[in-house]
Amino acid sequence: MIKRRNICKWIMLIVCISFLLLGSASANNSELNNSEYNEISDPSIKEFANDPSFIAYRGTLPETIDQKWENSIANCWLNLTRMGPSYSEFDSSIKSVAASDVIIVELGSAYKGKVDDSKINEIYQKIEDYCKQKEGISEVPVVFMWAHDEEDLPLPDYGPQIFEEVKNESGFIATRGTMPVITDASEKVEWGETAGNCIHSFTDELDHYMLENSGPVVGYGYNYRGYIFVEFDKKSPENVNESIIDEIYLIIDDHSKQEGVSEVPVVFEWGEVPRLDDLPADEIPDVNESNGVNLSGNEEETTGNKTANQIPGFTSTLSVLGILSLLVFKHPYR
């Protein structure tokens, strides 16, 4: 017969072990969020922290967010996107980079369980050093999030019908190249990866045409419907014509051929300079249509409609809440 005193000892032991186990589990679940770097007090950061995809926060958000800060953080992000679509120089777990008042880094969900507090600190240090070198920002604020799974975004069958659909959309200017016919799911993913390699190959040369370098281009990237897109500044339609479209396509096509892709499909469309705050739509003066190509900057599209057709990995966007998995590769203008 077990003595009452022994029973009490067993109960106390079980209770202690239970508390230890619960404490350990709690520590593991919040290991990335409760470090000395993650004492979150800023309301805008808490919004991220309330998202189930939130991992951790590093750096310091200034008390005053002015235009100078917005320009600096945007250009810091710009320089980071130039490292994409592969960010292996920072860490192979990085899937995409976006920005608002902070830098948002999405890590691939396949790395869950492999990313710990030490790894976050390591990645952050590389990003901070990079932004300090490029923009002079110390303690750049970075939010780490888990990327949404791409399987959640259905991919349509690729083919000539995609170009026909795009021609009916607001903001459309012209198409070049030929849409590949792809219906197999795995082949669509492979095509997307190939398109990403093409983009990476022509980034340096296309940068000369960016708005920040007095060019007409405000962004470019990969659309999940299977084509590369190039966005022209809708505020300056007078700078866009058939000649500049052909000139830019030649650059893209030449580099893509080196990646094994001939007649790479490209859609040219109107876009605008990324801003960190929502801005009212701007009216753009009409110009005459030429050779069936829409060169008018007037459009009714919304940011939401546009980003709904984009996939992560190759692009980045400044709209970060709710659409982090749908990213656009744009270059902001200082």
From TrEMBL:
Domain of life: Archaea
Ranges of biased composition (kind: Polar residues): 288-297
Region (Disordered): 279-309
Gene Ontology annotations of biological process type: fatty acid metabolic process
PROSITE patterns in UniProt: 3HCDH
GO molecular function, one term: oxidoreductase activity, acting on the CH-OH group of donors, NAD or NADP as acceptor
Classification via InterPro entries: 3-OHacyl-CoA_DH_CS
Protein's recorded name: Uncharacterized protein
Organism from which the protein derives: Methanosarcina barkeri 3
